[in-house]
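We modelled each protein-ligand pair independently. The example shown here corresponds to the magnesium ion entry; the chain sequence is given first, followed by the ligand as SMILES.
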Amino acid sequence: MIKVILFDLDGTLYSSADVQKKFAEAAYHALAKTKKIRIAQAQSLIEETRAQLKAKHGFAVPYTLTLVRFGVSVEEWHKANIDYFDPRDYISANGELRKMLLHLKKRCRLAILTNNNEVQAGRILQALRVEDLFDRVFTYNSFRTMKPNPQFFGKAAKAMAVAPGECLVVGDRYSVDLIPAQNLGMQIYEVRGPDDISKLVTALRSVA
Ligand SMILES: [Mg+2]
């Protein structure tokens, strides 16, 4: 029985090309500052490395992991992107999403499981006007670990006092959000964005 639904945040509860763009720009700025190079150079370094890592691992590696390879600490990177942009300037409330989450909340506890940092995740949930619907918001800051590390999923389940088999993980990146969860014995549900969450409501209703 599903007791907890763990939602990825970016690309799952909202999609925003603007936020994606700002996030990438913030990464270029962070690397340019650390390496004392021009922003265009930083951009090439990051995107070339991401392309190589993607070819090697078969999935798009998070910006955070790319920056770590260049010696930018996760803390420095988070501070840089928090200062660089505020997602509340680009994301607006989603009443439909709120309705669907309220449906799901009637039968399970809801939580966020995101590689994003605590500040940006909080701003995004506030912009979507769904911040009151989650029992817990697990970010990089919670355990200083990130997806696809299976420990992140395991620690979140433990913090919510449920077994992995009682968790359903919802996310938009199969390799990062879902495979590690499935390997731990969690249920998984792949979405391409917030609109697909209505299908999840219907699917869960049919097994109720
Ligand atoms: Mg995502």
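The chain is about 55% helix and 10% strand.
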